[in-house]
Every structure is written in C-alpha cells, then in structure tokens.
Amino acid sequence: MADFTIDAQGLSCPMPIVKLAKQAKELTAGDTVTVLSDDPGFEPDIAAWVEVQGHTLVSLTEADGVWTATIEIT
User: Fold this and answer.
1) Cβ atoms within 10 A of the Cβ of 70, count?
2) Which domains does the chain have, with CATH numbers?
3) What is the pLDDT of residues 8-34, one digit of tens each?
4) How big is the CA angle at 53 (ends 27 and 24), to the nearest 5 degrees?
5) Would you call 58 a catalytic residue per the annotation?
6) What angle do CA 44, 65, 18 make, to 5 degrees?
7) Cis bond before residue 44 (omega within 30° of 0)
8) Alpha helices by DSSP H, 1-74
C-alpha cells in the first residue's frame, strides 16, 4: 500500500477532482490519497466523486479554509 498527497490549493473546481482522478488511475486497492483544497466547492465535489467511483472517504475535515480529504482506493 502507498500513500499519496495532492496539494490542490489555489485550484478552482473541477481541477482538484481532475488531479485526484488522474492519480487514482495509477493506484491500486488499499492505496490512500490525501487531497488539500481551498476551493469552497470541494466538499460536495469530493463526496460525490468518491460515491460515484466506489472508493472510501476515510476523512474530510476543514481548517482555516483548507479542506483535507483522505480517500482509500478500492
């Protein structure tokens, strides 16, 4: 298993999800990806993407305007 981080701060929708989708294609089941985003639309976008793709949203938190999502690839 591997852990990856994508710093998508400063990128507007849909770019944080686009970067995540690109990285996810290179991963295998059990790998995790943490995405950092300051885009206000990131919270609903990440929840929808994870559901559609069938991955697991391990955590989603916000601090000082930055969302941090950790996703487990299934």
Assistant:
1) 16
2) 3-72 (3.30.110.40)
3) 999 998 999 999 999 999 999 999 999
4) 20
5) no
6) 45
7) no
8) 15-24, 42-53
Order the strands of the 56-63 sheet from edge to edge.
Answer: 3-7, 32-37, 66-72, 56-63
If we measure between CA atoms, which residue out of 41, 45, 38 comes closest to residue 62? 38
Each residue's pLDDT tens digit, 53-64? 999 999 999 999
Asked if residue 73 lies in contact with residue 24, where contact means CB atoms within 8 angstroms, the answer is yes
The Cα 19–Cα 16 span in angstroms is 5
Among 13, 24, 60, 66, the active-site one is: 13
